[in-house]
Amino acid sequence: MMTTDLSTMCRNPRARVRLDRPAAGPPRIVLACPVKGRGLLVNQLAFPDEERVLRLYRRLFRDEALPPAALSDAERTFLAGLGYLVWPYQIPAALPLDEALLAAPLEEPGAGPFLELHRDRLRARGAGPARGAPHPPLDRARRELAETGGVVVPAVLGPALLEVAQARLHKLLGEGYLHHEPADRHHTAFDEALGEALHRHLAPLVAAVVGRALVPSYCYLTHYLQGAVLPPHTDNAQCEVSLAVTLLATPGPEAAQDWPLCLHPEGRPARRIVLLPGDGLIFYGRDLVHGREGALATGRTLTSLVLHFVDPVTYRGPLKRSDHV
């Protein structure tokens, strides 16, 4: 039986706290707490605002052995709202990532033709005429990227790796590791462990297509719910080159087919791009206007992982977003 007795609450062992010192404005505390059944709760407190709350934080962080029972009911209620205090049944399971699971199914991109990098994945995926011809060689991919701002990479995640990614996604959703604002119609996470691992693994491939050195900045996982919208936009400074990968579409591929990505090259007709689970799109998100058509239909979900990169020679800003947790 679930209890609501505040005296039985405990610290959330998965809570993460950091002090953020932005270039402009006062320092702030960022508290991120995954809570099973509620999702990832993110709260920010800026100095010198909320002095009473900051004093409470200092008590907690100075004395890690401070038991919740030593707090007042008002303090416990406040910290429970932030997800820092939870009941035992709300503690999410730890989800360490075994990168050995990624090593076997993921080829290391080399210097050979683009077709060679993906031939085995395309064969295993069973790409047929309905999916178009086999992926073009590297030089043609580079030319398409230069002319249109984006190039599709079929089956950039092969079946085995896609299965690993989907299994982890279900665990992240079930255990409360994704941030959710009901009005936004999606769940999100910055730099989740799987995304960071894929960021490292796929960086040589993206650099080979672009034709120059790149470094990863941040990655963004989004699980869209029915009614979600993604209006046309351009991305942040850290998103010079991006690889967008569809991880999951439910109840089936039609969720991806009916909600395509749309690229809007300047002076050219818009491109509607369908990315089925495992497919990727390399594009210049900072310069190219992109979004999705309409709203995601009722009863459907779509999950996308976007890996962002910058040129280490020309880019001098921070790699992470200021609201990154």
Offer a quick outline of the entry:
The protein has helices spanning 51-62, 73-82, 100-103, 114-125, 138-148, 159-175, 193-210, 254-257, and strands spanning 10-11, 16-20, 28-35, 39-46, 85-86, 150-153, 179-181, 186-190, 215-224, 241-250, 261-264, 271-273, 280-283, 289-292, 301-310.
Write the layout of secondary structure elements.
Elements: E1 10-11, E2 16-20, E3 28-35, E4 39-46, H1 51-62, H2 73-82, E5 85-86, H3 100-103, H4 114-125, H5 138-148, E6 150-153, H6 159-175, E7 179-181, E8 186-190, H7 193-210, E9 215-224, E10 241-250, H8 254-257, E11 261-264, E12 271-273, E13 280-283, E14 289-292, E15 301-310
Explain how this protein is built:
The chain folds into 2 domains: 6-90, no CATH class; 100-310, Jelly Rolls (Sandwich), CATH 2.60.120. It contains 8 helices and 15 strands. It has helices spanning 51-62, 73-82, 100-103, 114-125, 138-148, 159-175, 193-210, 254-257, and strands at 10-11, 16-20, 28-35, 39-46, 85-86, 150-153, 179-181, 186-190, 215-224, 241-250, 261-264, 271-273, 280-283, 289-292, 301-310. The strands form 4 sheets. Strands 6-13-10-15-9-8-7 form a 7-stranded antiparallel β-sheet. Strand 2 (16-20) and strand 3 (28-35) form a beta hairpin.
